[in-house]
């Protein structure tokens, strides 16, 4: 029973499910009925469902049939009406067809026009879109065209800015176009091109600067010269009206000797276009001559490109190379001043450019770099100047070089470069300048001394007298009172030498200008150089003249007179130096002039040369002596050669009137002593082995002639018989033999008041032996003792006795 209940329950559920599916089929769209049917087939009650479905279909068919039966009459009426309408519809269709045909025929042109309008609208839309796109592209193309134009006109920095705008602003807006991609790809190449072109411009600039550095330097040095001239004018204005002469007035004379050698530089083209300026025209600034824009452009371009450090390194490296080239002097620089000027102009031009770059750029060059270059330049310049200036032997060129170096130093000092080492080097060149001056003045003195006539200067008018006195400080009241014509005691070389000494002082002073030295330093330099001139140059010149082989006694006498007056003029030279340096001689450490010593030494040398010359003349006369030592004749006059010698001595000592007294007296005494000594040697020479008393008598006459000359006082100032003492040895010796006064000689020998005190036993023995040999020579028939033959043996015995006693005196004297 329960089983039956369960089956009943299951059939009820199945029926309900089938009912639900049927409702769902009825209400669901046909396209979505598949899942519903699938659920039926998935179940086990497929047959029962089909039965229910058939039942439901039959029910619906019955309902449809009922409904159709209900509406059948209306359906028939509708069909009847529809048949009526079909005819009318056919008519309407024909009318519509005909109307359509007509409409198609009439609208064919309109369709064509509308098709054309459609195409025009399409083109218009395309054009509008194209214009819009072109409006986006045009700024890009314009910027690119502008970029090309800027690069073509070498406006590289604006081109680089345009390239930046193009890359970052315009190209991103149209980046999807193919031409833009080409542009983007070309941008790095354009940057490199700009970089390379700007570097090429920089190289051209550096090359032009190297070639035209001398013109830039010349302009800068002209500016410095103008400024210095202006400063000098300002400094000199307060002195206008002053009675005291300035230093420039002092060496106007020397200025006439120094030729100005400042030829103008040749015209050049390129970055410079400046004609030579007249002295009274304003010289353009060095920076006005150079277009620095390539440097600035290249610096900006490399800075924008992030390669500033590369640019700085390249610029500094190239300028260092150029500096080394500039600092390499030409091998013949020392030959002319233009060589030095061009060398200095190039150096100045180089550093003027670097200084301008330093002050107009931010960090392209710095002070440390400039200082390093300047230290190198300074050392190389000083070394080159030392080397080349040492070849210079012309003081005018050395002076011009000094002025050029001062201008060079002043010019660079204006630009802030330290130049103390240059001024220190100028002090070295000053010593060389002094040496070249000394060489030049050695030639001047030599010419003056060689061309002098060594005769007192004759003057025939007051004008000539004042001219000589104006050239040389000389005062002599007695000479002034004498009527014209009259003579100065000195020769022409005195005023000439004096003026040349002053000219030398002017020359030394000229070098000291603009060296920033104190008056004391200038005074010390002048005095030291002048002392060298006096003690070395002038002294050597005088010594050479004095030692000349063909110098005469008259010339030597005149040299002594001249040096005496030059010695007196030394105080005026001291005053002259004091006046031009404004340093009093009483100042501590002031060097004194050694002119007095120089002229004294020269005078003493001339005096010695006079003594030597006189002695040589005496020797020449004595060479003419021709004594017959074996003669028996007694002469009655002095020998001819001695008479001529005495006449020569008288005429010579007559010229000594203007000599200082001691000089003339010394010369006269020296001549007499030399004459006496020579006569003694002549009498005692070994070649004369025999002589007679007759020859001794003749010799005695010659000695008497000499004594007569000595007594006549050829030179004033000697005391009585002073000059005769030169012949006292000869006189006593001859008296001893002529008077044959051996008893007195032997008896009084060694006593202070001995009559024959000056007779040496050796001399007496030598002469006695010569007479003894003659007496023993029996071959001579004209012997003086021939009339005393009976006493000949006694006489010979006496001679032997005297000789023996003389030998005894000699041996006792030696013991």
Written overview of the protein:
With 815 residues, this protein is mainly alpha-helical. Among the domains are: 219-228 and 287-417; 435-605, Exocyst complex subunit Sec15 C-terminal domain, N-terminal subdomain (Tetracycline Repressor, domain 2, Orthogonal Bundle), CATH 1.10.357.30; 625-739, Methane Monooxygenase Hydroxylase, Chain G, domain 1 (Up-down Bundle); 761-814. The chain has 27 helices and two strands. It has a two-stranded antiparallel ribbon with strand order 1-2. Helix 17 (519-546) packs parallel to helix 20. The longest helix has 107 residues, at 46-152. It starts with a helix and ends with a helix. Mean pLDDT is 78; it is low at 239-280 and 778-788. Residues 421-770 form the Exocyst complex subunit EXOC6/Sec15 C-terminal domain. Belongs to the SEC15 family. Residues 82-109 form a coiled coil. Keywords: Coiled coil, Exocytosis, Protein transport, Transport. Residues 260-280 are annotated as: Disordered.
């Amino acid at each position: 029973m329960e089983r039956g209940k369960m089956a009943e329950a299951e059939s009820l559920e199945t029926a309900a499910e089938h009912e639900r599916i049927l409702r769902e089929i009825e209400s669901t769209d046909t396209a979505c009925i598949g899942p519903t049917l699938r659920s039926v087939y998935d179940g086990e009650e497929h047959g029962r469902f089909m039965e229910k479905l058939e039942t439901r279909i039959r029910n619906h068919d019955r309902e449809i049939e009922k409904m159709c039966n209900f509406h059948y009459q209306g359906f028939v009426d509708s069909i009847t009406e529809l048949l009526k309408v079909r005819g009318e519809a056919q008519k309407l269709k024909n009318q519509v067809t005909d109307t359509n045909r007509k409409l198609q025929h009439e609208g064919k042109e309109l369709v064509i026009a509308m098709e054309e309008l459609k195409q025009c609208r399409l083109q218009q839309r395309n054009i509008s879109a194209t214009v819009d796109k072109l409006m986006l592209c045009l700024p890009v193309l314009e910027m690119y065209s502008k970029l090309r134009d800027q690069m073509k006109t070498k406006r590289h920095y604006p081109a680089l800015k345009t390239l930046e705008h193009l890359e970052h602003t315009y190209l991103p807006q149209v980046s999807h176009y193919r031409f833009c991609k080409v542009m983007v790809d070309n941008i790095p190449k354009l940057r490199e091109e700009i970089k390379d072109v700007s570097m090429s411009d920089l190289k051209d600039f550096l090359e032009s600067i190297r070639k035209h550095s001398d013109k830039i330097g010349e302009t800068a040095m002209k500016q410095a010269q103008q400024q210095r001239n202006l400063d000098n004018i300002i400094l000199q204005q307060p002195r206008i009206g002053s009675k005291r002469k300035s230093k420039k007035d002092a060496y106007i004379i020397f200025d006439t000797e120094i030729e100005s050698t400042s030829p103008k530089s040749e015209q050049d083209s390129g970055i410079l276009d400046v004609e030579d300026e007249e002295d009274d025209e304003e010289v353009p600034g060095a920076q006005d001559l150079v277009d620095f824009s390539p440097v600035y452009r290249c610096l900006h371009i490399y800075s924008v490109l992030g390669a500033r450090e590369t640019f700085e390194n390249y610029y500094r490296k190239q300028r260092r190379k150029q500096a080394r080239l500039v600092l390499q002097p030409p091998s013949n620089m020392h030959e002319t001043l233009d060589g030095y000027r061009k060398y200095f102009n190039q150096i100045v031009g180089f550093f003027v450019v670097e200084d301008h770059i330093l002050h107009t750029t931010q960090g392209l060059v710095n002070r440390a770099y400039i200082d390093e270059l300047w230290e190198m330049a300074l050392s190389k310049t000083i070394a080159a100047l030392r080397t080349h200036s040492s070849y210079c032997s012309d003081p005018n060129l050395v002076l011009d070089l000094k002025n050029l170096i001062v201008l060079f130093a002043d010019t660079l000092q204006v630009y802030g470069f330290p130049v103390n080492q240059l001024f220190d080097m100028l002090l070295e060149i000053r010593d060389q300048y002094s040496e070249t001056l000394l060489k030049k003045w050695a030639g001047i003195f030599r010419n003056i001394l060689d061309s002098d006539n060594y005769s007192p200067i004759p003057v025939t008018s007051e004008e000539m007298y004042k001219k000589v006195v104006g050239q040389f400080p000389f005062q002599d009241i007695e000479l002034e009172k004498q009527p014209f014509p009259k003579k100065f005691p000195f020769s022409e070389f005195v005023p000439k030498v004096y003026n040349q000494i002053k000219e030398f002082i002017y020359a030394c002073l000229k070098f000291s200008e603009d060296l920033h030295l104190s008056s004391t330093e200038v005074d010390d330099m002048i005095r030291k150089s002048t002392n060298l001139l006096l003690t070395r140059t002038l002294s050597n010149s005088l010594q050479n003249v004095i030692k000349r082989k063909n110098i005469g006694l008259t010339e030597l006498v005149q040299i002594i007179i001249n040096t005496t007056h030059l010695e007196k003029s030394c105080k005026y030279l001291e005053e002259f130096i004091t006046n031009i340096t404004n340093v009093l001689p009483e100042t501590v450490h002031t060097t004194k002039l050694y002119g007095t010593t120089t002229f004294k030494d020269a005078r003493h040398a001339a005096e010695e040369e006079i003594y030597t010359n006189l002695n040589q003349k005496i020797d020449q006369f004595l060479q003419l002596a021709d004594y017959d030592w074996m003669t028996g004749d007694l002469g009655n006059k002095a020998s001819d050669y001695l008479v001529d010698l005495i006449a020569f001595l008288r005429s010579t000592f007559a010229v000594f009137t203007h000599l200082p007294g001691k000089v003339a007296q010394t010369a006269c005494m020296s001549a007499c002593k030399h004459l006496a000594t020579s006569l003694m040697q002549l009498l005692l020479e070994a070649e004369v082995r025999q002589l007679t008393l007759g020859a001794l008598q003749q010799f005695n006459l010659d000695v008497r002639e000499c004594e007569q000359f000595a007594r006549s006082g050829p030179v004033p100032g000697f005391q009585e018989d002073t000059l005769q003492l030169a012949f006292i040895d000869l006189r006593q010796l001859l008296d001893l033999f002529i008077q044959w006064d051996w008893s007195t000689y032997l008896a009084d020998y060694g006593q202070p008041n001995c009559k024959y005190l000056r007779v040496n036993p050796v001399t007496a023995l030598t002469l006695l032996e010569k007479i003894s040999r003659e007496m023993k020579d029996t071959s001579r028939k004209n012997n003086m003792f021939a009339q005393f033959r009976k006493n000949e043996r006694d006489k010979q015995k006496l001679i032997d006795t005297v000789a023996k006693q003389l030998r005894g005196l000699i041996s006792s004297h030696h013991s």
